[in-house]
Amino acid sequence: MEKSQKKAVVLLSGGLDSMVTAGIAREKGYALNALTIDYNQRHAREIQSAKTIAVALEVDRHLLLPLDLRAFGGSALTDSIDVPKGGVGNDIPVTYVPARNLVFLSLTLSWAEAIGARDIFIGVNALDYSGYPDCRPEFIEAFQELARLATKAGAEGHQFTIHAPLQHLGKAEIVKEAYRLDLDPGMSWSCYDPELDGSACGLCDSCRLRLAGFAAAQHTDPVSYRQT
């Protein structure tokens, strides 16, 4: 499909949700610019997935931005805290990275303004997720208003749109979207605590949600798991 000249910046973590979000943006005809933030996360394996996905989607530019959040800590993904393996609970888990999506969207907005893009895509989800507050629709709505107030482009009357196309989809629906978009889910990575042999643990919240989504969608996850 020929791309239009309308630019979008996609926050591409390398996970299933961000891959599908990028695929939706491509389907809508945007010229894609992908931003991947290497925040020294425990599951840095997803960085390689982001690179693979960016190539598959033929993005115009893939920017890998280093940002060492281990200097802050406060999360099982950026500190010496065990990743929980007991199942998805109701409380905000220790895998929550303090204000991560706020920080990441701010960086995405900065790049978008710099290259003249007015559309930003992020793969947050408010249904099948681990209770992170920065995945909620009200956060996305508030950030869009913040983008207007915080930028030169906004002050000059240009509107930024924060697209969260997976916001109200369950994980099974997201899996189905991947196949509809002809995207290989095996390119993506979700596990918070990869095994030394390169397999996914199968027990962390992210693995459990992903596996449940594939099962509900009646598809087999091509990613290798140590336990399911």
From TrEMBL:
Pathway: Purine metabolism; 7-cyano-7-deazaguanine biosynthesis. One of its GO terms (biological process) is tRNA queuosine(34) biosynthetic process. Keywords: ATP-binding, Ligase, Metal-binding, Nucleotide-binding, Queuosine biosynthesis, Zinc. Zn(2+) binds at C191, C201, C204, C207. It catalyses: 7-carboxy-7-carbaguanine + NH4(+) + 2 ATP = 7-cyano-7-carbaguanine + 2 AMP + 2 diphosphate + 2 H(+). Catalyzes the ATP-dependent conversion of 7-carboxy-7-deazaguanine (CDG) to 7-cyano-7-deazaguanine (preQ(0)). Belongs to the QueC family. PANTHER family: 7-CYANO-7-DEAZAGUANINE SYNTHASE (PTHR42914). This is 7-cyano-7-deazaguanine synthase. The lineage of its organism: Bacteria, Pseudomonadati, Pseudomonadota, Alphaproteobacteria, Sphingomonadales. The gene is queC.
